[in-house]
Amino acid sequence: MILHLTPLDDWLTAPDRPYSPRSLAAEGFVHCSPDETVGLAVANALYRDAPGPLMVLLIDEEALDSPVRWEPAAGASLPGVAEDALFPHVYGPVNRSAVVGMLEVRRGSDGRWASLAAWS
After folding, report:
1. Measured between alpha carbons, how far is 57 from 5 in angstroms, rounded to an integer?
2. Residue 56: Cβ-neighbour burial (10 angstroms; 0-12, 13-18, 19+)
3. Among 55, 82, 90, 103, which residue carries the largest CB count within 10 Å?
4. How far apart (Å, rounded) are the C-alpha atoms in residues 70 and 3?
5. Where are the beta strands (DSSP E) in 2-118?
6. Which domains does the chain have, with CATH numbers?
7. pLDDT number for residue 120
8. pTM for the full model?
9. At a CB cut-off of 8 Å and minimum separation 6, what does 4 contact?
């Protein structure tokens, strides 16, 4: 299972088509995280000011129609993430049938993204 962070509105856009976030057009792949710890580190580094709701798509890597490559992060390292960590990058749109669940990213009392919870 790989994780992809997205604002809920982005996921809900064009629900009848494969999911294609802006990063796919801009960088050629969809950014994903290997686990919850890394996903939360990414959320706090890149989505700090996102008003929410911020979601995590649970993607079955084996069910994807597009190839996945595990690669180092480009640019600066993220606090709480090992410098040699590899990130799953999906090189093409995400077929919605590969998304097997969705969790909401919740903020802690300090305002930082702190946990994942069932979306209600």
Report:
1. 6
2. buried
3. 90
4. 13
5. 2-7, 30-31, 54-59, 68-72, 86-90, 99-107, 113-118
6. 2-118 (3.20.170.20)
7. 67
8. 0.92
9. 21, 30, 31, 32, 33, 56, 57, 59, 90, 94
Least confident stretch, 2-11, 51-60, 75-84: 75-84
- At 38, which helix (H) or strand (E)? helix 36-46
Structure tokens belonging to residue 91: 């090189």
d(CA 11, CA 13): 6
Which two structure tokens, joined as six digits, stand for 86?
């590899």
pLDDT tens-digit profile of 81-116?
888 889 999 999 999 999 999 999 999 999 999 999
Residue type, 49: D
Q: How many other C-beta atoms can be found within 10 angstroms of the C-beta atom of residue 89?
A: 21
